[in-house]
Amino acid sequence: MIGFSLSDEQKQLQADAHAFAVEVMRPVSRHYDLTGEWAVPVYQKAWEAGYLQSLVPKAYGGPGKSQLDEAIVCEELAWGCAGLYTSIMANGLAITPILIAGSDQQKKTWLSKLVEAPLFAAFSLSEPNAGSDAGGMTCRAEKKGDVYVINGTKCYCTNGGYADFYTLFCSTDPSRGARGSSALIVPRSTPGLTVGKALDKMGQRASNQIELHFENAEVPVANLLGKEGMGFIIAMKTLDQTRAAVAAGGVGVARAAYEIALDYAKTRIQFGSPIIMNQGVSFMLADMAVKIEASRLLTYQAAWMTDHQIKNSKQSAISKTFATDTAMEVATDAVQILGGNGYSREFLVEKFMRDAKLLQIYEGTNQIQRLVIAKEIQQGN
Ligand SMILES: Cc1cc2nc3c(=O)[nH]c(=O)nc-3n(C[C@H](O)[C@H](O)[C@H](O)COP(=O)(O)OP(=O)(O)OC[C@H]3O[C@@H](n4cnc5c(N)ncnc54)[C@H](O)[C@@H]3O)c2cc1C
């Protein structure tokens, strides 16, 4: 059966997340955009609301939210501020490798930390010379007795400057390429690990990305997730599951831009009438509405498939591509509808345009999503 209504619990979750976005995020979003400061008071409240740890299963003391729940919340949080949303959402990304491949003991040790305090975790796959081609990673972990010795550099690690631990992907057997990669949990306090300076960005400036440098950093072999050689598979499974939350971010940014553009078009008078009376403007708004609705349906579908353990590589890539391309298009058109005001910092649409761009890049660029979709359809999926 197909159903298009949310449960009462999901409606409440949505209403609460929207109230959080209105009361806690929007009032400070410009401040954090301008300063790039780490928004401690927002994250404290996000943790109290259960958003920082939403994917931690009930068995480990967390709220045990589904990916569909996560998508519902993420749309609202990104509506509030995409930069703050990214910091919150990236905790879910970071812990998903543990949810997928962690042992019961690893889950108890690492997931329960996020329940006990407003802590951050970070997902570390990208390297300076291995971005889209993540399988070409060279960060090396060599097993020596009961430790892995890690050497190399990672980059663009979201939340990395403030994380308590990292889910790190590195090569344990360079001769096997991507099949020789493994996933390790690395505590921030590991000797030999240094955190670089924060990336200065165009948008989503409230979020934090850093480089990680490993020089003979040792972690216990007990921190290996799954088996050696499974790292790339764990990373790809993680991204299949979490892309719906990025797509939901796209829906949130697009909706935020659309709402401002719609209000403006109804009230801005030129040539004696509201500008919405011009078909050139109203059709832009109609196209926005079409794509936002379609994006949300694709997002819910991809999340629902994860929740029902249905392979969704194609659908999650489609939802991420469509929703984040939509966010970029809608934010750009919203700037156009507001004319000179759209370009001014007095209105938020210029921020949404800068914020939307990142959604098309991280968790795999939209070109890479199209590669995934193309491969899936070539295989008849
Ligand atoms: C703010 C921010 C946050 C991030 N957060 C994280 C994080 O938390 N953890 C993490 O591991 N990574 C993170 N990333 C990294 C992000 O996932 C990569 O930037 C992204 O995957 C692209 O890699 P790249 O930047 O090296 O670009 P490249 O791989 O060098 O690509 C450059 C361009 O070439 C295109 N391209 C490359 N190969 C192909 C191809 N085969 N076909 C068509 N086009 C292609 C790309 O689409 C892109 O347009 C983040 C990045 C940013 C900017």
Descriptive report:
Helix 3 crosses helix 6 (231-267), helix 6 (231-267) packs antiparallel against helix 7 (279-307) and helix 6 (231-267) packs parallel to helix 8. The two termini are 21 Å apart. Strand 2 and strand 3 (147-158) form a beta hairpin. The model has no long low-confidence stretch (mean pLDDT 97). The chain has three domains: 8-119, Acyl-CoA dehydrogenase/oxidase, N-terminal domain (Butyryl-Coa Dehydrogenase, subunit A, domain 1, Orthogonal Bundle), CATH 1.10.540.10; 122-229, Butyryl-CoA Dehydrogenase, subunit A, domain 2; 232-378, Butyryl-CoA Dehydrogenase, subunit A, domain 3, CATH 1.20.140.10. Strands 1-4-5-8 form a four-stranded mixed sheet. Strands 2-3-7-6 form a four-stranded antiparallel sheet, with helices on one face. A two-stranded antiparallel ribbon has the order 9-10. It contains eleven helices and ten strands. It is globular and about 80 Å long. With 381 residues, it is an alpha+beta fold. The chain binds flavin-adenine dinucleotide (FAD).
Task: Set out the fold topology.
Elements: H1 8-35, H2 40-48, H3 67-80, H4 82-101, H5 104-116, E1 120-124, E2 140-144, E3 147-158, E4 163-171, E5 181-187, E6 193-195, E7 209-220, E8 224-225, H6 231-267, E9 269-270, E10 273-274, H7 279-307, H8 313-337, H9 339-343, H10 349-359, H11 366-378
Parallel strand pairs: 1-4
Antiparallel strand pairs: 2-3, 3-7, 4-5, 5-8, 6-7, 9-10
Helix pairs in contact: 1-3, 3-4, 3-6, 3-7, 4-6, 6-7, 6-8, 6-10, 7-8, 8-10, 8-11
The chain binds flavin-adenine dinucleotide.
Flavin-adenine dinucleotide is lined by residues 90, 123-126, 131-132, 156-158, 201, 209, 358, 361-365, 367-368, 371.
